[in-house]
Amino acid sequence: MDTVGTDRHDRHHRPEHDARPGAEHEDLLTELLKPLRLTGVFDSRWHVRAPWAIEGDAERSCAVLHYVVEGDCWITTDGEASVELHAGDLVVFPTGTAHRLADRPERQGVPLKAVLPERQPGTSGEIVIEGTGPEARLLCAGLHYDAGAATGLYTSLPWALVLDRAQVDREPLLRDTLRLLAAPDRPVGPGDRLITLRAFEMALVLALRPLLRELAGSPASLPMLRHPGISRAVVMIATRFAEPWRIDSLAREVGMSRSAFTAAFRELVGESPARYLAARRMQEAVRLLTETSLPQSALPARIGYQSAVGFHLAFRKWFGVTPGEYRAGGGARAA
After folding, report:
1. Calpha distance 130→47 (Å, rounded)
2. Which residues, including other chains, have CB under 8 Å from residue 117's CB and lie 6 or more apart?
3. Which candidate among 34, 134, 202, 308 keeps its CA 20 to 30 Å from the CA of 146?
């Protein structure tokens, strides 16, 4: 894989330190790069002949996927080297970075909205460009996710992640899923929207799996992985968020002073440890509110708050609505 540019582990059921090389990094990446649960997908099939070029805008809360079924193309974005793709290659833009697809890297394109004006999640489209040059066929998709579930590590991923054909072939389930989704005679019928959504979700999971392995073996790929104390703290927040952590106790747990810990955490993660901990707790609160029938009174203790009032105030500050309003579908906005 080229980087261009499970249930939570129970602490009492595994050793404090795994002796396997890179195990700590694997723990970190497993917890924080778990693919986000998709809320909607728009997919399209492209049948294009050179000359062609299409410019895609930045997509908020949306990963973008391009799978080359046949032919070749180039992906380009501002400030980065262009990348050539061939048949069987897959590229994922984790955070929906604006980019251009074209038969040549220097070719100027037309806006995507000009050839696909309607791209509502749950629908499909098609692009056909007639030319006299080489032909290419692609499967493209916008994978919408809940922005509140995106971790700092996820949003710090490279602008594009490329799996070449050989790497895709080493993941047979990924390869077969992509081929099925790209098929022109893909089955349709009752429940096809949900099936398509879950199939793309699985494709994203399977595409990120090689990424986990490569990043675990190459800590320099993400600055956070170079600092054992901060890496460990992030894993603790991800897996032990229900404990009554304070900044002092987190710093002490990883063998750092409060000031050094706070400075290093902010530099490597991009936000303060207090906000990062709050975000993880709010992420779990939303999961419990939307995926379980637990009474609201049970939530504070489950996510690390000592009082119902404290949880209520924190949730309202974070989302702009109360937990009850959120559960009832009243809408929310992230802080």
Report:
1. 8
2. none
3. 308
